[in-house]
Specification:
The chain is of the alpha/beta class and 319 residues long. It has 7 helices and 17 strands. The chain is globular, with a radius of gyration of 20 Å. The protein binds flavin-adenine dinucleotide (FAD). Flavin-adenine dinucleotide is lined by residues 34, 38-39, 123, 134-137, 149-152, 154, 156-160, 200, 203, 310, 312-315, 318.
């Protein structure tokens, strides 16, 4: 059985078991969340031994070259010596402010205590002092002084309820990342963009759309924010003030009416965007909706590698 050495401990990993599960089984604490290769919280770096390619799927080439891998996806065949991901990817940060945007969404602003490079729309792993880790998308621009996150309160949720009920400005946390490829890349400034987010799936889109505008995007930009009820919509005024974009709020609850679309998001997309060849799409939020919308955009002609998505997969295990 391959042995994995980490922080001075060496543990045996059973055949087919991931490095993460092997370490946790031996009570070695490793930050983690989704255990599905999505959130990036369990990023480690291989120092000795062969890291299987599967454990590096989706990571940037530069990260692969430096030996980074996802412990939850790493089923080693040989002995490995691993360490925490490089210091450049984890920084201490301080909560600066918290502003309630709706009955269940909080805008959390954080100041990093060391340089932290990211692209608006990417996500970070937010680590509480006790090691609890959850992923949140970045809504701020990298020209802004603070990192902005939008956190939805989840029933019995450890991190979200801590942020709503206990955390205070001045509290120390850590940020790890950034992760994900859901961000604006310049180069095709006239390409039409379609951004669709459900719930706090608006957070990355709020970053991406302002980044695109700041970088001189000149093609049409459509941003759709889907919510269950009108009370769940947020940042409406800020988005309406971005005159260069076509912003649509959409509410699923059909008994409500107002200055928003009412009905399912996929109907709205089908009504307004039949042909999407040549467009670029960004889809974020509820995993089932993200999956279904990605498919719809593809069937409407959008190239798969022009569809950038982040599904907010819930964490499977608590630290
Ligand atoms: C790439 C990525 C980006 C994300 N970005 C954001 C973001 O910008 N804003 C944001 O608010 N969240 C975001 N999330 C989700 C976030 O990481 C947490 O899962 C969420 O905040 C709940 O954490 P918690 O500790 O409060 O709840 P937990 O303690 O993890 O969960 C408590 C209970 O609620 C269930 N649960 C957790 N999440 C959900 C959910 N979404 N729907 C239904 N049940 C759930 C759990 O299964 C569990 O039973 C993102 C997730 C990923 C993977």
């Amino acid at each position: 059985m391959p042995a994995v050495s980490y922080k001075g401990r060496t543990v045996e990993v059973q055949p087919g078991e991931s490095v993460l599960d092997g370490l946790l089984r031996h009570d070695v604490a490793v930050p983690h969340a989704c255990k599905a290769g999505s959130c990036g919280s369990c990023l480690l770096r291989g120092v000795e031994g062969a890291v299987p390619a599967q454990a590096q799927l989706g990571l940037k080439d530069s990260w692969k070259a430096r030996g980074y891998f996802l412990a939850c996806q790493c089923r080693p065949e040989t002995d490995l010596v691993v360490e925490v991901a490089g210091s450049g990817t984890r920084v201490a940060a301080e909560i600066v402010s918290m502003q309630q945007l709706t009955h269940n969404v909080m805008r959390v602003r954080l100041a990093c205590l060391a340089p932290f490079e990211f692209r608006p729309g990417q996500y970070v792993s937010l680590l509480r002092e006790d090691g609890l880790a959850r992923s949140y998308s970045i809504a701020s621009l990298n020209t802004e002084a603070e990192i902005e996150l939008h956190v939805r309160r989840v029933r019995d949720g450890l991190m979200s309820n801590w942020l709503f009920d206990a955390a205070l400005p001045g509290d120390r946390v850590h940020l790890q990342g950034p992760f994900g490829e859901c961000f604006y890349t310049p180069g095709r400034e006239q390409q039409p963009l379609l951004l669709i987010g459900t719930g706090t799936g608006l957070a990355p889109l709020y970053g991406i759309v302002r980044d695109a505008l700041q970088r001189g995007h000149s093609g049409p930009i459509h941003l759709i924010h889907g919510a269950l009820r009108s009370a769940d919509l947020y940042l409406r005024q800020e988005l309406q003030e971005l005159v260069a974009i076509n912003y649509t709020a959409s509410v699923l609850e059909t008994s409500e009416s107002g200055d928003y679309y009412t009905g399912p998001l996929d109907l709205l997309i089908a009504e307004r965007f039949q042909k999407l060849a040549g467009w670029r799409g960004f889809v974020c939020g509820d995993p089932a909706i993200v999956q279904s919308l990605r498919r719809k955009l593809f069937l409407a002609g959008m190239a798969m590698n022009d569809i950038l998505a982040d599904a907010f997969v819930p964490a499977a295990n608590m630290v």
